[in-house]
Amino acid sequence: MTMPVPERPTTRLRRLIEGDGIHVAPGAYDGLSARLVEESGSELLYASGGAIARSCGIPDIGLLGLTEVAARIEQMVDVTSLPVIADADTGFGNAVNAVRTLALYERIGVAGLHIEDQTFPKRCGHLDDKSLVPADEMARKVRALAEARTDPDFVLIARTDAIATEGLDAAIERAHAYAGAGADVIFVEAPETVEQIEEIAARIPQPKLINMFHGGKTPLVPRNRLRELGYRLIIVPSDLQRAMITAVRRTLEAINRDGDSGAVREDLASFAERERIVRTAEYLAIGS
């Protein structure tokens, strides 16, 4: 009996963006958080460059190099069956660097990436004082990626940070140029009002990604409303990490006060639960 061939992650992601639904990709930053995202029932996983940087104890201002980021993304891809959308920053340089980034991400098994039009080194999209490369330079980079991918289903997402520096009209003009260069999905970063979110949707017919997290420049809009507007992907980059920070601080407070974590035991996963998540028994059974 011939077993069916599993659908490739790239094909699964492409099928989702070409439908009329909307799909949420929580942001992960290491193998454990990736396992938790899959366990939660999520359809997709977002490998957040900002969360990866902060997990190293440094800010999201372009301090990590390609191989450092790719090594962490590979950890996530290895332990989840979910399609992974990976942050590729600016491609880590010019068009040549971006093509190398794409090749590495394809080898790792990423389903899609987003690349942005900031100058290198970049900074978090919700920080101030960003600077952009010319639109035609970014379009050339997108075109180079579209021509270089070996899997035609690999999803290319073009992000523009132009709202903060050039205004909404310029951001939409850039988005059109990037779509024309071969981007499958458009990501206009950091709209500041619901009206801007709606105008982006009205003026950009291509599938769109939006960044939704509490406390950023972009107001939170209900998922169904975003779907009606034509957004197909929602990323929530850093909220899992922010939750982790609060939980760790609470536990450390108990440890430093009492010498143990008994006071917060109800907030802790059990030893057995932790080992189940990382599949200790499955690994130990190999070769036994």
- Strand percentage lies at 5-15%
Q: Level of helix content?
A: 40-55%
Unreliable spans are none
**In angstroms, what separates the terminal alpha carbons?**
28 Å
Report on the biggest sheet.
8 strands, parallel, barrel
- How large, in whole angstroms, is the Cα Rg? 20 Å
Number of strand segments: 8
Give helix and strand order, one letter per element, not per position.
HEHEHHEHEHEHHEHEHEHHH
Describe the protein.
The structure is a single chain. This protein is an alpha/beta fold and 288 residues long. Helices cover 47% and strands 13% of the residues. The protein contains 13 helices and eight strands. Strands 1-2-3-4-5-6-7-8 form an eight-stranded parallel β-barrel, surrounded by nine helices. Helix 4 packs parallel to helix 5, helix 5 runs parallel beside helix 6 and helix 6 runs parallel beside helix 8. The relative contact order is 0.13.
Name its key features.
288 residues, alpha/beta, 8-stranded parallel β-barrel
What topology emerges from the helices and strands here?
Elements: H1 9-18, E1 23-28, H2 31-39, E2 45-47, H3 49-55, H4 66-78, E3 84-87, H5 95-108, E4 112-116, H6 135-148, E5 155-160, H7 162-166, H8 168-180, E6 185-188, H9 194-203, E7 208-211, H10 223-229, E8 231-236, H11 239-258, H12 271-277, H13 280-285
Parallel strand pairs: 1-2, 1-8, 2-3, 3-4, 4-5, 5-6, 6-7, 7-8
